[in-house]
Amino acid sequence: MKDERIPRRYGRWAGNPNGVAEDPARCVQEVWPDSGWTAYQCLRKRGHGRYSAYCKQHAKKNEASR
């Protein structure tokens, strides 16, 4: 399991190999759109779950998956 305190990069692909840096104010969950090829960082604010790194919705999903 990846440590939630380590900064991440989202949306890496051949055209953008460095991706986009993590926004420390937003949930760390990687989200895939219904139509599209690259993932992005969840747009909701943090404050729940492990290390308070998740939004309320993704904190529940991560606890359920453990």
Total helical segments: 1
Spatial order of the strands forming the largest sheet: 1-2
The oligomeric state is: single chain
Structure classification: alpha+beta
- Termini distance? 11 Å
Poorly predicted regions: none
What proportion strand?
5-15%
- Report on the biggest sheet: 2 strands, antiparallel
Succession of helices and strands = EEEEH
DSSP, total strands = 4
Q: Output the radius of gyration.
A: 12 Å
Specify the helix fraction band: 10-25%
Apparent shape: globular
Mean pLDDT: 88
Overall structural domain count: 1
Describe this structure as you would to a colleague.
The protein has 66 residues and is α+β, with helices and mostly antiparallel strands. The protein has one domain. The protein has 1 helix and 4 strands, in the order ββββα. The strands form 2 sheets. The protein has a two-stranded antiparallel sheet with strand order 1-2. Strands 3-4 form a two-stranded antiparallel ribbon. A hairpin with an 8-residue loop joins strand 3 and strand 4 (40-41). The protein is globular. The termini are close together.
